[in-house]
Amino acid sequence: MTSKKNSSEGTEIREYHTSFNGLFFKVKKLLHSRQSPHQKIEVVENEYFGKILLLDGLVQTTEKDEFFYHEMLTHPAFISHPDPQNILIIGGGDGGVLKEVLRYCIKHVWIVEIDPEVVEVSEKYFPWLSPALKDKRVELVVADGNEFIQNSDRKFDVVLIDSSDPVGPSRRLHEEDFFRKVKNCLDPNGVVVAQIGSPLYQLDQIKKKTAFLKKLFKVVRIYLGPVPTYPGGLWCFVYLSDAVDPLVLRRKPPVELKYFNHEAHQTAFSLPNFLKNNKS
Ligand code: SAM
After folding, report:
1. Which of 109, 161, 234, 260 has the smallest CB count inside 10 Å?
2. Is 69 in the pocket of ligand 1 (CB under 6 A)?
3. How far apart are CA 271 and CA 206, in angstroms?
């Protein structure tokens, strides 16, 4: 996905999904724009979607539709895992996934984010992050997720990989070696969930990824969720485990959620033919 834009006020951000099509957002106000040691971080105000976080010109989250992605990445693991207590989030510096995890009676959650500036900027512009970071169950670790799990001797019940696109600092979080390390720090009853991209624009990547994930995990289940501001408006996630079946539910989802519920969970795992038949 590429972006050609000029994000000063009164202009448009254009995120190209191919050379022929993409998404655009009118910039009502440019709130933040700085190159960090890892990536370009921007926050703009849009009349309809509210504040929008962009990394290297690509939309990460918006105030208006963040719940689609954050609920679909988090809750399938938490309503199916027997007893989720020690949780690891890799990436996720905007805090959207963290706020969803804290809806459950967990013991401890580590959030490993490579870029502290994403956290600072998100704390300033996305109201949900500060209260989440102040929760005593939360430990923010500023580190490369790949190195963190390499050196971790802890076993996690649930690992949520909220990485950005497979470019720049996030590239290695999409590779086989990384998932092998994730498996090494997973409790035998553990569950891993990762965002794996657009079923429309990144089908080959999804196919390659499921192929190597099947070598590492007994349960490899792709599921889908709509994300209006992501390329193609539909996003793919993968549920990984050696012991837990995502469709055997252990608890009800929190009632206050805006998108996710029991039926949405069942639907998400009911794949269309082009994905079903495309599995290696
Ligand atoms: N939902 C978004 C998506 O699908 O594109 C991702 C949102 S979240 C903001 C992605 C976060 O991953 C960013 O804050 C980025 O700094 C962080 N990140 C990228 N590479 C990382 C790495 N190697 N270790 C830890 N965090 C990383």
Report:
1. 234
2. yes
3. 14
Residue 11 phi, psi (nearest 5) = -110, -165
Residue nearest to atom 4 of ligand 1 (CA): 164
* Backbone phi and psi for residue 107, each to the nearest 5 degrees, phi listed first: -85, -50
Could you tell me if the CB of 225 is within 6 A of ligand 1?
Answer: no
Q: What integer best gives the mean pLDDT of the chain?
A: 94
Ligand 1 centroid to Cα of residue 260, in Å, is: 22
User: pLDDT tens, 7-40?
Assistant: 555 689 999 999 999 999 999 999 999 999 999 9
C-beta 146 within 6 A of ligand 1: yes
HSE-CB for 222 with a 13 A CA cutoff: 28
Q: Which residues are catalytic?
A: 162
Looking at residue 280, its pLDDT comes to 45
Contacts 24+ apart (CB under 8 A), 127-133: 128/95, 128/96, 128/99, 129/94, 129/95, 129/98, 129/99, 131/99, 132/95, 132/98, 132/99, 132/102, 133/95, 133/98
| pTM score of the predicted model | 0.96
